[in-house]
Amino acid sequence: MKRLFAEELVNDVRRDWESRREKRKALELQWRLNMNFLSGNQYCEITPTGDIDDYGKQYWWQSREVFNQIASVVETRLAKLARVKTGVAVRPTSDEDADAYAAKLSTQVLKSAQESVDLVKLINAASAWCETTGTCFLKVGWNRDAGGVIGVDKKGKALHEGDISVTVIPPFEIFPDNLLAGELENCRSVIHAKAYHVDEVADCWGVEVKGEDVNVFSLDSSPLPDSNGYFKGVTGVNSSLAPDHCVVLERYTLPTKDSPDGRLTIVAADKLLYDGDLPYINQKDGTRGYPFATMRCLDKVGCVFGSSVIERLIPLQRAYNDVRNRKHEYMNRLAMGVLAVEDGSIDKDVLEEEGLAPGKVLVYRQGSEPPRMMDPGRIPTDFINEEERLLSEFVTVSGVSELSKYSQTYASMSGTAISLLVEQDNTRLASTSGSLRECVKQVCYFILRAFKQFAGEKRFMRLAGDNGAMQLKCFSGSDLTADDLMFETDNELNDTLANRRNMVLELVRLGILDGKEGKLSERNKSRVLELLGFGNWESAADLADCQRDAAIRENAQAREKGVCPDITDVDDDQIHEEEHTKALLSDGLSQRGRKALEKHVAAHKRRLALIAVNSPVQQEE
């Protein structure tokens, strides 16, 4: 009975996947066409049979060179998107000391996790997919076989503490049940289909499956004949067969009244690999949901998948290639000429093979007209006007001007005009950069939720403090919070580094950052150097930050253990008194901890009073 249920479930998932593939076929063809145009195979089209095919020449002598403007547009857009920072911080839910500590710890864990998975590299790869196809997804999960080794099992196999896993998912692998749901979260179920080698399936799920030839996309380059005796290598996106592979289907179903924890079914070939609840509690209301974060190039109203700017540039690129090739053909006629020959006057075969070489002696039949060169005329100005118009349309449609694309300016342009052009380019990218930042924020939320769910009661991590010093901290999943995430910086496309530097220098010149003594404090000096792009030169020597961190650690001891350490000679009494007083005014302290902290604050006040009495100014009075 159980085997029969498994077979029915496998067949149901595979039928569901085939149905969704058929509904999404038109979108896949457009994505493949975009990839072909980006790679340089620009003489192809979508055929009525549902495939991408090359259309032939009308005449053998036609030139079909590719003048790829799309590649430079996409490269420029990717370079601008690479400036978008991925730094996300956790904001405290209240001004309580416990909430501030949880937010600070969560931010440190999040930054450490971003470094371990190399999130910047993953975001750049996702941006490339997003610019090409219009959509990309990032999948956040938990890998039980990653992280440090914490022991061995009875069979001698190493046991790991587990770690976060983030992977880039191209749109070819995602199959929602409703393409017009608007957002992926609005779909009732989503299928993630990916080709695995049979050995990978055996290693991950411990099930032996039969391999087959799976159709995958690849970049193939082959020499194709062009006009004028040239051969060109065109890289196109073609399908190829991968042997000993199988398609693993993961169907995620959102929670319902009958299934409050949702459902995840994993199928490979004719085998059922897993069937159970959704694994991740990653929604804000504490429920389970999809582990996918979406990034779009351009939004399509009411559609799960977005559109790419390449779709708008394809007609312009075709027209531009035609104009340039026809122009070069006309120039070839001007350079080589067109010869008029009377029938039977000369040997045409020899003339066609050898042409008119310098010093060549033409022998023609006596009494016939000698061969003559026809007047080719001049290149029409329409070619030049059309080429310039198409280039200007590339700027209009793509939103990338010559200033960003070619780093080209004119002598007549003022600095204000250049700034306006840069601002206009950045404004056109605001939608794409906003989608990227929201995707990063969603990924960071999933990361914190995964740590909160799987970190356990005790987990050790090397975390970086505010002053850059690495610390080995022990925490539990319940110590983390992911309620309120915010970006550490504004959108870098709207606020460039040069603008921030000029603003900081102006603030320093006006004296706004000066302290009570009329000069920059050590703390403000380190912050100014950091904003100017000189790194954390003085952050390690920022004594105020170190003293504040030490006082916060003492507050944590009072809150957790009910005791406070003795005052040392290196403690800054004023900073410690401020931090301890703030902890006393907040909730979360036990009666024992409050008494210990009050006694600790009184000791700091006595030292401050003693220092004031022994100061030189007091002695003179």
Explain this structure.
It is a single chain. Mean pLDDT is 79; it is low at 218-234, 536-541 and 617-621. This protein has 18 helices and 19 strands. Strands 8, 9, 10, 11, 12 and 13 form a 6-stranded antiparallel β-sheet that branches. A hairpin with a 5-residue loop joins strand 10 (212-225) and strand 11. The relative contact order is 0.11. The chain is flat, with a radius of gyration of 34 Å. By secondary structure, the chain is of the alpha+beta class. The chain has 2 domains: 2-311 and 429-449, no CATH class; 496-620, no CATH class.
Number of domains: 2
The shape, in one word, is flat
What structural class should be given to the helix and strand makeup? alpha+beta
On the 0 to 100 scale, the average pLDDT is 79
- What are the segments in which pLDDT stays under 50 over at least 5 consecutive residues? 218-234, 536-541, 617-621
Beta fraction of the residues?
15-25%
Bin the helical content.
Answer: 40-55%
Profile the largest sheet: 6 strands, antiparallel
State the total count of DSSP E strands. Answer: 19
Distance between the termini: 97 Å
Radius of gyration over C-alpha positions, nearest whole angstrom: 34 Å
The number of distinct helices, counting runs of at least 4 residues, comes to 18
